[in-house]
Amino acid sequence: MYEILIVDDHTHLVDSLASGLPWEQMGISAVHKAYSGEEALELLQYHDIDLIVTDIQMTGISGLELISVVREKWAKIRSVILTGHDEFQYAQEAIRTGICDYLLKPVSNEELEKTIRALIVELELEGEQLVNQQKLSYLFRESMPKLRESLLRELIAGKLPPHSVLRDKLNLYELSFHEQNPILMFCMRIEEDFIGTDLYSVSLLEYALTNIADEIFSPRFHIWNCKDDHDYQVFLACPKQFSEGTGKDWMEEAERLARLVQHQIKRFLRIKVSLVMSNWSSFPSEVPAVYHTMLALFTDYIGFQTESFFHDLQERSFEEIRPLSELYVAPTFMQLLEVEQWSAAEEKMKRVFEELTSRENRTKEHMFEVYITLMQAFSYYVHKKGKRFYDIYGREADKMLKLDAGWSMEPLREWSMQSLQQLKSYSGSLSDNLRGDIIKRIIRFANEQVKDVTLQSAADYVHLHPVYVSNLFKAETGENFSNYVLRVRMDAALQHLKQTDLKISQIAQEVGYQKPQYFIKLFKNHFGMTPQEYRSGL
C-alpha cells in the first residue's frame, strides 16, 4: 500500500480530491493534505510519502519549488503537477526536468485516478526489480543456519508453534524432523575459560566444534543444533533409517558417535567438553521436557567435573512431579504485563489451568506455585505504576496478601482471572486519562501559541514524536491537527477584526501568516469573504 500527499492553497480543492477517489481500491492506504508548500515539506518529514499531487502556482513555495526540494531529498517520490492553460508550456518544461506528469485544471476525479493508477504501476514494477529473487534467495541461504538455530531455541524454550506452522518451517529450513519422530538430545558444555579471548576467535571455535559433530553424525543421523542461554551446545539427532526393533542399536550407535565427537574436539581443537545424552523421546512435544532434563543432569550428576559423559538411560514418565511448564514458558506473565498484553496474559492463564487440570498427580504445592508466580507478576505491575495493592484492589487487597495454601482449583482460577481483569480495567482507565490529558495540553498550547504553533512545536511541548501526536489528535478529536490550527487562527483573526484597528497585514502576522495574500485567501476559503469584507460588515 502507498501514501499520497495532495498540496494546494485552495483548501476546498484539496478536500474534494482527498474524499472523491476510491483510494483504497487504488492501493493508497493514507491520503495526506497540505494547504501550502511549507506545510507539505513539514508533512514529508514525518510520513513515508510515495506520490505527490501539487498545484503549480501557490503562495509562498510554488509547486515546482516544492518538487525541486522533493527530488533532492526524496528522490523516489513520484510527482504530478496541476496547471492551468496559461501555464501549459511551463508545465511541459517541468516534465523534462523530472516531474512525472501534469494535469490541466479543472481536474476531474476520473483523470486524476487514471494518472495515479499509472504511477502506482510504475512503483510496483520498480519494487519488483528492486526485490531481485536471486539476491533474496542468496540472502536466505546465508541466513539459514541462524534461522534453524532460532527455531530450535524456541522449541527447547517451550514455544511450540501450531503443527502446520512448525511443519512449514521445517520444510522451508530443510530440516528432516517430523512429528512423532524418535529423537535423541545431547548437550555439550565447553570446559574452557574464554575470558580475554575475542569474540571472533570464540565464534570460530564454536563453529568448528559444531562442524565436527555434524560431520560425525550426519552419515547416519539428521542433526540440528543451537546454542542455549547457558552457552551449552544443544543437539537433536534423528536416525535416517529408524525402524521398530532397532532402537537399542541406534542408541548404542548414537552414544558411540557422541563419545567420538568429544574425543575429536579434544584432539583437533584442544578443548575439553562434557556431554549428557538423553533417552529416546518424541518430536516435538517432548523437546522442552527433555532439554530441562539435560540441564538437570549437568547440575545433579556432572557438577564441576570436566570431560564427563553421562547417558540418561532411565525410563522417564513426563508426568512425574515437576514444575508447571506453562508458567515459565516465554513470554512469562511478568513479560506480558510489562507491555500490557492483556489478551495474551488471559490466554496464558487459561493454558496454565488447563495444564494444572490435566495433571494426574496435581498437588497443593502446584497451587502454591501458581499463586506465587501470579502474585510476583501482579506486584511488579502495581509497583511499577507507583501504586499499592489497595489503590487498585481496594478491600480485596487484604485477601490477595494473605496466602491461603489450602485453595482448591476453582477458587484459585476465579481469583486469578478476577485479579487480572482488575489490572486490565485500571490500565484502560489510566490510558484514557493520559491520552485525554495530552490532547488538553496540545489544545491549550495551540491556543496560546497561535502565532507560532506547528506540529513539531506541539510535539516537542508534550515530549512525543510528531507522527504520534498527529495520529493521536486525529483519533481523539476526529480532526486533523493542521485543520484545528487553521480553525484556531481564523477564530483569532475574527477577534482581531472585531476588537482592534490593526491592518490586515498586521493581523495576518499576529495569527501566524507572514504573507497577507495567503492569509486573505485562507480567510476567504474559510468564511466565504475577505477579512476586509468581514470588517466592513460589522
From TrEMBL:
**Source organism, top-level taxon:** Bacteria
GO cellular component, as recorded = cytoplasm
Where are the 4-aspartylphosphate modifications? Answer: 55
Any idea where the HTH araC/xylS-type domain is? Answer: 440-537
Query: Which Gene Ontology MF annotations are present?
Result: DNA-binding transcription factor activity; sequence-specific DNA binding
Q: Which GO terms describe its biological process?
A: phosphorelay signal transduction system
Please report the name of this protein according to its UniProt entry. Response regulator
Q: Which organism is it from?
A: Paenibacillus albus
